[in-house]
Description:
Pfam family, one: BPD_transp_2
Strand content: 5-15%
InterPro entries: ABC_transp_permease (IPR001851), LivM-like (IPR043428)
Subcellular location: Cell membrane
Radius of gyration: 22 Å
Keywords: Cell membrane, Membrane, Transmembrane, Transmembrane helix
Strand order of the largest sheet: 1-6
Main location: membrane
Amino acid sequence: MTATVSTPETTAEVAPGFRRPSQRRRGPWAVAAWVVLMLAVPLLVSSDQWMGVGIFALIAAVGVLGIQIVMGLAGQVSIATAAFMPIGAYTAAWLGVDHGQPFWVWLPASAVVAGIGGALFAPIAVRMRGHYLGVATLGLVFIASYVWEVWTDLTGGSGGRVAAPVVINGQDLLDGYWSGDTQVLTLFQAWWYFAFAVLLVAMVVTWNIKRSRLGRAFMAVRDKDLAAGVVGIPVTRTKTTAFAISSAFAGVSGSLLAAYMGYVTPAQWSLTLSIDFIAMAVIGGAGTIAGALLGALFYKAMPEAVNWLSTYVPFVSQDAKVDGGLTAPLLSQMLFGAAILLVLLFEPRGLNALVRRPFHWARTRRERSAR
């Protein structure tokens, strides 16, 4: 009897998760090229409007990474992003404004306090599954909304309060960055670099979690929590950790959003915000790191793109106050809803898979031609 040996060069199927040596070598170079491109964006884009869109997307992507962890990796349904983002925002305001602490104090503190909030809620959440868990997190959003309205000493009530500033070398980034009388960076350039730096750290943390023993435990619980418990994975503790980490990311995103806007009110943290973040995660690609940024960019850029294109479409009005007819904001909402449906039906892996597909196709053709 003879044995047939299958070599990597002749094997048609590749084991899931396997990366060829050439792929592993290209990975760091691709990331480095992306970082260089992101650093060059403020120098290449002159429109303040589109720079503002990009900054909002960078800030939102931090919160979407948290959703990728709790929903994409751990498989837990959570609609509580709008409950934990304000925890970070008000923690930052309390430390940064009321006590004069710098951003390197209030930014990590916003993650810690929001993470503790998620860990305290987790023992209730882990008792539920599926849509029951989603409804429980939904209730948390409504409870949090009431708390922010009545806790006026901290939040300023419905009138809001000033947010914590990002001050570097004695300069508030909302005023740009100056060297003497010369402006080195505009407001948008300074905030782009700051938000990108925070996002980069969040991406590195997420990447390490995904590759760690904890990340494998998340995925085991997601796929089958009963089986995970049988093989010795502490299911309750794993779910609690996922909620805590996701909440910490939401807290950082909330503190950054408030600092960039310069003001924070309870009305900002509505249920719609949570749904928007889930939509960003779905469109970008559930459980993927790059998908968090792609989904956030798509969500933030679509209204501006539709508003610009509406000037060339006669039956679309740019005035949102027009009664009847199709306006640019309504068209944007319709297209965003259609995009969610199309992604769910035809590409559940999201924009991340669509972006990767041409590169995968080109690499496959090169490898076949080299044989």
